[in-house]
Amino acid sequence: MQILAIVGAQWGDEGKGKITDLLGEKCDFVVRYQGGNNAGHTIIVGDKKIILHLIPSGILHPNTVSLIGHGVVFDPVAFKAELNEIEGLGVKVSPKNLKISENCTVITSYNKILDGQRESSSKTKIGTTGRGIGPAYEDKIGRRAIKVKDLLNKEVLEQKLRENLVEKESLFKNLYHCDYPSVEEEVERLYSLGQEIKPLMANTFGLLDTAIANNKKILFEGAQGVLLDIDYGSYPFVTSSNTSSGGIYNGAGLPGGRLNDVLGITKAYCTRVGAGPFPTELHDELGEHIQKKGGEFGATTGRVRRCGWLDIPLLKYSAKCANITSFALTKLDVLSDIETLKVCISYEYEGKTLDMAYPGLDLSKVKPVYKDLKPFHDDFIDNKVSPELKEFLDLIESETGIKIGILAYGPERSEIIFRQDFF
Fold this sequence. Notes:
By secondary structure, this protein is an alpha/beta fold. Helices cover 32% and strands 20% of the residues. The protein starts with a strand and ends in a 5-residue tail after the last strand. The chain has a 10-stranded mixed sheet, sandwiched between helices. Strands 14, 16, 17 and 18 form a 4-stranded mixed sheet that branches. It has a two-stranded antiparallel sheet with strand order 3-4. It has 3 domains: 161 residues, Adenylosuccinate Synthetase, subunit A, domain 1 (Adenylosuccinate Synthetase, Chain A, domain 1); 92 residues, Adenylosuccinate Synthetase, subunit A, domain 2; 153 residues, Adenylosuccinate Synthetase, subunit A, domain 3 (Adenylosuccinate Synthetase, Chain A, domain 3, Alpha-Beta Complex). The chain is globular and about 65 Å long. It is built from 12 helices and 20 strands.
């Protein structure tokens, strides 16, 4: 048996989809444990570009079962659209290879309206996707959430929606002055969607329990990145779930088992979508060059990603938070042939030198300390690594104390070097 977790070691968008896709082919189950359709994993298969938001990457492999765990907030409308899209690309989906936890929290129309109104009216922009993720998690923590299993019972659904709307209705009418659907309209909409996804509903915790007992190979697929974790991230510019490996225990379960490896995905540089502090951000032509060459646009929103140098203090911090055992370094090709190469190795902060971030550190007040490296000019033919690139890799490994198990240098499945065996 081997159980592997894949987590983003930065602010998301690190290239997890491709890595999960490649490793998912070798395992029995791929499990999504947190987040919602605010995430986006892009996978290039031949001439097809497949973007997954809710459905785990294992869906592209016929012998792999994909599970959406109970820690995910589930938008049935977004799920239906995504399902139709991937089936249109020839991906076969059935209750045999895709299962949704009956206990997922449902994202309602009210959640999405509230999310959009808050972001548009606030002076401090968090950078939310406006898809109702945060308000849905609020309902969950407030013990008023609609669960996937509730979509099958109109009476239960109506009762819960009426209770759910009490506070929101006051906000919609008196604060935001916006339109919203009636409870009756929302019941009919969600009930109809529930009937469509009913065959896919399952006790995913029980399925994982059985799988672990039978020594199956399991891959847990995280969305976003550790630096967006609600507890460990650059609060308040974070998402609303636990994106680190700790979220697995809450959002899917690991009954009777343990993680054998935690693979942290990191770009060879840093990117960030939306608002929030970014110590190594480049505000010059080089930053624009990296953005254009790397195609740095959000898979979910299409927003331009801010770009900057690799940040070792944050990478070390993410590794500690998520118990990362190895790294996958992606987008090396983007840095190849640039004239200048820097890596942030520490911060100056309030008269002190910090070699690692910590929860609550005000990243807007740190001053990055850089190490200059010789640029590399690798074309990655025959998977060879130049002395200059090796120096870059060695620096990351020595500073973090963690080996780099995977090198990726392009979007295609073939553009990858495995330095460590997984599964």
